[in-house]
Amino acid sequence: MLAAHQEVQKLALLHPAGELSFEQVEAAVLNVARYDAFKLAETVLAGHTERVQRMLDGLQAEGEAPVLVHWALSEDIRTLARVRQALDAGRPMPMALREHRVWGAKEKLMERVLPRLSSATVAQWLQDAHVVDGIAKGLKVPTWPADPWDALHRLATQVSQACAVRG
């Protein structure tokens, strides 16, 4: 009820008094429901593979640039690699995360997944992210999909499945 009340208040601020058109209400609601490339990266680390696929489809449908989506995802992969390297060098997890400016929700996610990830796995993700970067910029790679969104799906699924909690 509170969220609905807040939406009505927002509509009142956005539009003059009177009857609202369907398009005005739809635009306000859709603006709230937008997907976020940076939330996508967190969802990947959380291992929510099905949600990752929906988010990627939503970002594509909204016209988001695949290069931005790739950057958000690959930035987390690069951070995982740097922290994994620090852990391999003997640094305690809290220190390694702090040194690489990981805090908040991502800190908790990385604390959960890093002990299960090998250096070789993370290195492969870095290589795959490099390949997807090229695809997003128009390069063709025989073993990868030519469409940047399909390549992003493949990379995000690969990482997300490895980060999923196993019962």
Structure description:
This protein has 167 residues and is mainly α. The protein has helices spanning 2-14, 22-32, 37-46, 49-61, 66-88, 93-99, 104-113, 119-136, 148-163. The longest helix has 23 residues, at 66-88. The protein is globular and about 65 Å long. The mean pLDDT is 90.
In short:
With 167 residues, the protein is mainly α.
The helix/strand order is HHHHHHHHH
Strand content: under 5%
Query: Major β-sheet, in short?
Result: none
Class from helix and strand fractions: mainly alpha
Total count of strands? 0
CATH topology of the domain at 65-167: Zinc Finger, Delta Prime, domain 3
CATH classification, class level of the domain at 65-167:
Mainly Alpha
Low-pLDDT runs of 5+ residues are none
Averaged pLDDT, please?
A: 90
Backbone CA Rg:
19 Å
Q: How would the global form be characterised?
A: globular
How far is the N terminus from the C terminus? 36 Å
| Percent of residues in helices | over 70%
* Count, helices: 9
